Amino acid sequence: MPAEKDHFEELRHLILESDRENYAQQNERIMEKLDELEKELNDPEKFAAVIQQSKAEIIDVLGPVMGKMIKRFITSEINRLKQNIETKSKAIFSFQFLKQRIKNKMAGVSVGDAAIGEATESSLLQIFVIEKETGLLIGEYSPQNILEPDLVAGMLSAIKSFVESAFGEENSELESLEYSSYKILMYNFNRFYFACVMEGYVDEETRANLQDDFLHLTDIKLGSIPLKDIDDTLKKTVEEALSETFSNKYTSNIDLNLEDLNENSK
Amino acid sequence: MKTVSKKIVLLGNEGVGKTSLVKRYVHSIFNDEYLTTIGIKISKKVVEVGDVQVNLMLWDIAGNMMSKTLYNNYLRGAHGVFLVCDAMRPETYESVMKEREVILSKDFQGTETAVIINKSDLITENPNTYLANYEYDFLTSAKIGDNVEQAFLQMATNILSK
């Protein structure tokens, strides 16, 4: 028995020794590879070259991840829109809905526009009244006061001039600028123009209502104001007129609509 | 205190220091990229003349403006124009003087104009001798701030007194 035990010990020693050597060699090779890789990653030129060479593989790896993220975002936004439309459609057989449909029909608003318009919010952020000749701010109305009015009025006028000179035909004027979810609508009159900053989807009805308000304001209050000196007295007059016309108008209408829906569901 | 707003335009060749004049002494929320894209940048300088606060809206027009129509559009309605040239480059002085005669005398007769010779810090000899043949209103240095405030204040005063 002891002899057998000795043989067994000898055999185990031989096998494990060989394994240990194999592991040690493998470890060494792995460490060498890791060192090489680290050197490549720390060298911007080599790293860029690696990316350049593996462009297709990187796209293959990142594509699905990015795609999933974008898909998730779009799905969530569509769901949000769908929920809003569903909430609205609960009132589909209400008297108010039928009344609105008739009103839309008469105003030439499509069902799609009306649905999107009702499902998304649009709100008035700021109105500038700007003298055309000088680009100076005559007055402003800002429920949320987010922009520096003097400088923005000047820059808007410069951009307007640039676009009209570069792309405009004779007597044509810039009417809107869009950036992300913001829209700047411009209503041009003889001596001044209104720049109206809106956030969200602005439907045709809102545009037409704004146009009516600016026409009325110009006709009744601002059409004959002297613009020789743009001072604080003039600004006060213009800003009071703007405030009278736009106070509590074109604000986000979601709360109001929810109230309407509650009324309808009773 | 009463507040009034006035439009001031800065004209002059590329590199004379118009942007430096407005950069260090005025308030702006826009970056200089607009100068290379649409050829203009708007800044604001507030000065007090007696009991009146004057908001000077400064239109800094790119020196290399190619479109004459756009150039004239930017100039339109200006209450005052600064014609800026470089003390070290006589050709920039000739250029603004020509601009003053050809354009301003024709289309902008009621506009207040002032010639600024900038970069006075680079003049090594007596400025009166060095600039003996120049007609100018202000000798400024945007770099060290010489006369910059005075130029804006004087422009505002002249406009208000019209």
Q: How does this structure look, described?
A:
The complex is a heterodimer of chains A (266) and B (162). In chain A, 65% of the residues lie in helices and 13% in strands. Chain A has 266 residues and is an alpha+beta fold. Chain A folds into 2 domains: 2-53; 120-258, Beta-Lactamase. In chain A, helix 3 (55-89) packs across helix 5 and helix 7 crosses helix 8. Mean pLDDT of chain A is 77; it is low at 253-266. Chain B has a single domain (2-160), classed as 3-Layer(aba) Sandwich (Rossmann fold). A 6-stranded mixed beta sheet of chain B has the order 2-3-1-4-5-6. Chain B is an alpha/beta fold. Chain B contains 6 helices and 6 strands. The longest helix of chain B has 18 residues, at 90-107. Helix content of chain B is 35%, strand content 28%.
What is the strand and helix layout of this fold?
The complex is a heterodimer of chains A (266) and B (162).
Chain A (H helix, E strand, L loop, with lengths): L1 H41 L1 H10 L1 H35 L5 H13 L3 H9 L2 E10 L5 E5 L7 H19 L8 E4 L2 E7 L3 E9 L3 H19 L9 H15 L7 H12 L1
Antiparallel strand pairs in A: 1-2, 1-5, 3-4, 4-5
Helix pairs in contact in A: 3-5, 7-8
Chain B lengths: L1 E10 L6 H8 L7 H5 L2 E10 L2 E10 L6 H8 L4 E7 L3 H18 L4 E7 L8 H4 L7 E2 L8 H13 L2
Parallel strand pairs in B: 1-3, 1-4, 4-5, 5-6
Antiparallel strand pairs in B: 2-3
Unreliable stretches of chain A, pLDDT < 50, 5 or more residues?
253-266
Q: What would the principal axes of the Cα set say about the shape of chain B?
A: globular
The major pleated sheet of chain B works out as: 6 strands, mixed
Q: What is the CATH topology of chain B?
A: Rossmann fold
**Coarse shape of chain A:** elongated
Oligomer designation = heterodimer
Structural class of chain A comes to: alpha+beta
Count of the separate structural domains of chain A: 2
What is the count of structural domains of chain B?
1
Radius of gyration of chain A: 34 Å
Overall mean pLDDT of chain A stands at: 77
